[in-house]
Design brief:
Rossmann fold; single chain; 5-stranded parallel beta sheet; alpha/beta
Length: 434
């Protein structure tokens, strides 16, 4: 532990994390593990109470085990910022109903920092933002409060990298990038992240470059997912199984990276981050046509999944209006309770638009599920749409189980089940491009 702490400046011993969600909570726990004095600030009183009781407000086996071992004090009182040498801003950066970036959480957190931070503090923005936010939004707020950024307070950006539910890659070992508005800020930020992350910490030449890195990462994924989603719709017309084709292409040992189609793209990054670049570039006179098309394609996939359901119901002479449809999965990805930007919301809205009789079940989000067991939802469903490939579904759903409960149509929104086995059981099957 002493060796770890010697990597950082002697004055950088205390850390305050603003925002104790999927990003802030793991990094707070990790900083405690590496010997820092840590506090956490969040507006959610329930979350703060749970954390102070040693309980994780997030469904995560690692956090549930480590938080009691590496506890810290959480609070809703922003005055705790005044004791921090390092302040990490880990608040959400959502988009509104028309996909316009909402920087209100970042501005609100920065206002608190400007009011309570002490001189000499290092402020690190971890929230994903478009290039320019640190200098055009965060820095002016700090300067308005009387700080000279780069002299008596330092500003850096280290875009978060977290993959909820991933047992291999976590805040402990995912490489990071860091940029700052000053050499001292960069040096201190590199030292801090180097002391808590067992992975490469890459310095960027500017804070804008650091901001651009995260946008590029997730836009890359969004574009490639849009490509295979479009292929899925094309190959469906051609009678080609897109999943088999992608697996075939993946045998090439270079210049190909497999992405797979689905009924929608969720999470707080991929369906959100491209809009930050689209809008900021628009302000500078550039039109990101490619990114906009990718977003349009991926946003259309929940409705496409419902179209597939309607077609399969029509083939067995059932209308979607009034038919009992079960939605399997509410979370945006398997084996977590994370609802952020989940395609399930759009699938359900589309089903409602057509007048379907909807039931829902997610074993990780029972509080929002209309049915509390898999057996119960299958028993009351003429058709089901698999939105989230939770392990509970993969381990339990069989053609025999579907047939036993009278399910007549199965829409596999994640292409995870055996099409042939299900159709041989007399159940209409449709995947995304297969």
């Amino acid at each position: 532990m002493a060796e770890t702490m010697n990597k950082v400046s002697g004055k950088d011993r205390s850390v305050c994390v603003i925002g104790l969600g999927y990003v802030g909570l793991p990094i707070a726990v990790r900083a405690v593990e590496r010997g820092y004095s840590v506090t956490g600030l969040d507006l959610d009183e329930r979350k703060v109470t749970l954390i102070n009781d040693g309980k994780s407000p997030i469904e995560d086996a690692g956090l549930s085990e480590e938080l009691p071992k590496y506890p810290f004090t959480a609070s809703t009182n922003p005055s705790i910022l005044s004791d921090a040498d390092i302040i990490l801003i880990c608040v959400p950066t959502p988009v509104d109903d028309v996909h316009f970036p909402d920087l209100a959480p970042v501005k609100g957190a920065t206002d608190l920092v400007a009011k309570y931070a002490k001189k000499g503090a290092l402020v690190v923005l971890e929230s994903t933002v478009n290039p320019g936010v640190s200098e055009e939004v965060v820095k002016p707020i700090l300067e308005k409060a009387g700080f000279v950024v780069g002299q008596d307070i330092h500003l850096a950006h280290c875009p978060e990298r977290i993959n909820p539910g991933d047992t291999k890659w976590s805040v402990k070992n995912i490489p990071r990038v860091v940029g700052s508005t000053s050499p001292e800020g960069l040096e201190r930020a590199l030292a801090f992240y180097g002391s808590i992350v067992d992975g490469e910490i890459r310095p960027m030449k500017s804070i804008r470059e650091a901001e651009a890195v995260k946008i590029v990462e997730n836009s890359f994924r969004d574009i490639n997912i849009a490509f295979v989603n479009e292929l899925a719709r094309s190959f469906d017309k051609l009678g080609i199984d897109v999943k088999d084709v992608i697996r075939g292409a993946a045998t090439k040992p270079f210049a190909f990276m497999a992405h797979y189609p689905s009924c929608g793209v969720g999470g707080h990054c991929i369906p959100v981050d491209p809009y930050y670049l689209i809008e900021r570039a628009k302000q500078s006179g550039f039109d990101h046509r490619f990114l906009k098309i990718a977003r349009e394609i991926n946003n259309s996939m929940p409705a496409y999944a419902v179209e597939l359901l309607q077609d399969e119901l029509n083939s067995i002479r059932l209308p979607l209006n009034g038919t009992k449809v079960g939605v399997l999965g509410l979370a945006y990805k398997p084996n977590v309770d994370d609802l952020r930007e989940s395609p399930a919301e759009d699938v359900i809205a589309e089903l409602e638009r057509y007048g379907a009789d909807i039931a829902t079940f997610d074993p990780h989000i029972l509080r929002l599920s209309s049915e509390k067991t898999l057996e119960a939802i299958l028993d009351r469903s003429d058709a089901v749409i698999l939105v989230t490939a939770h392990r509970e579904f993969l381990d339990s759903i069989t053609p025999e189980l579907l047939a036993k409960h009278g399910v007549r149509v199965f829409i596999d929104g994640q292409n995870t089940f055996d099409r042939q086995a299900i159709t041989e059981a007399g159940i209409a099957y449709k995947g995304i491009g297969r």
